[in-house]
Design a protein that fits this description.
The protein contains six helices and 13 strands. With 213 residues, it is α/β, with parallel strands linked by helices. The protein has one domain: Rossmann fold. Strands 1, 4, 5, 6, 7, 8, 9, 10 and 11 form a nine-stranded mixed β-sheet that branches. Strands 2-3 form a two-stranded antiparallel ribbon. A two-stranded antiparallel sheet has the order 12-13. Strand 12 and strand 13 form a beta hairpin. Helix 1 runs antiparallel to helix 2 and helix 2 packs across helix 3. The longest helix is centred in the N-terminal third of the chain and has 19 residues. The chain is globular, with a radius of gyration of 18 Å. The mean pLDDT is 93.
Length: 213
């Protein structure tokens, strides 16, 4: 697969181990949800390394010192409904003050094209870092549509996408359409099947997260 400058594919034994458990059809809903949160937190550590900081004075038990701290209102988490909701707590583990917006996109089963049905975002997000969450980057249609909404409707300029598993087709589609968006992925699988599901994948992430399988 062609490599893209705006794509980071993680190569970490802890992430690989957790993805193996995530794929397993015997993994129950509770454990699946926990694994998604844990993998997201590991990914977010790298994805948020350029978050804005400021200097503050901290008084230790011995003396005062100057320390960098993260600016509170600098990040907005944007999960793509519904599966993206499963990744929110993973980011909040590292950045608990981040606000959360929601964009609802569903994929038409016949055309496989994305359809927007809901959008509610915090005010004044145009200058914040927007972290789009979508655990399965299949055709890339939902992710592309969400990024388009953030750019065209809300003027967002600092957008990142985090996906746990990607198909080559979807990864290429988003990376090509949005070259200014940094994409973080934990695994790139073989291909899509005729129904647009990732192979080998892990099934339907939303169903497995919320027990609707």
């Amino acid at each position: 697969m062609q490599k893209f400058e705006n794509v980071r594919v993680f190569d970490h034994p802890l992430i690989a181990h957790k993805i193996a458990l995530l794929r397993d059809e015997k993994t129950n809903t509770k454990h699946f949800r926990e694994l998604v949160e844990e993998i997201t937190a590991l990914m977010a550590y790298e994805a948020l390394k350029d978050v804005p900081t400021k200097k503050v004075t901290v008084k230790t038990p011995l003396e005062s010192c100057t320390q960098n701290v993260v600016e509170d209102d600098s990040v907005v988490i944007v999960p793509i409904l519904r599966a993206g909701l499963g990744m929110v707590n993973g980011v909040h583990t590292l950045f608990p003050t981040a606000k959360v917006g929601h964009i609802g996109i569903y994929r038409d089963e016949k055309s496989l094209l994305p359809q927007e049905y809901y959008c509610k975002l915090p005010d004044h997000i145009e200058d914040k870092i927007c972290i789009v969450l979508d655990p399965m980057l299949a055709t890339g249609g939902s992710a592309k549509a969400t990024i388009d909404i953030l750019k065209k409707k809300y003027g967002c300029k600092k957008i990142k996408l985090m996906s746990i598993i990607a198909a080559p087709e979807g990864l290429e589609a988003v990376a090509t359409a949005h070259k200014d968006v940094k994409i973080f992925v934990s695994a790139v699988d073989r291909q899509l099947n005729e129904k647009g599901y990732i192979l080998p994948g892990l099934g339907d992430a939303g169903d497995r997260l919320f027990g609707t399988k």
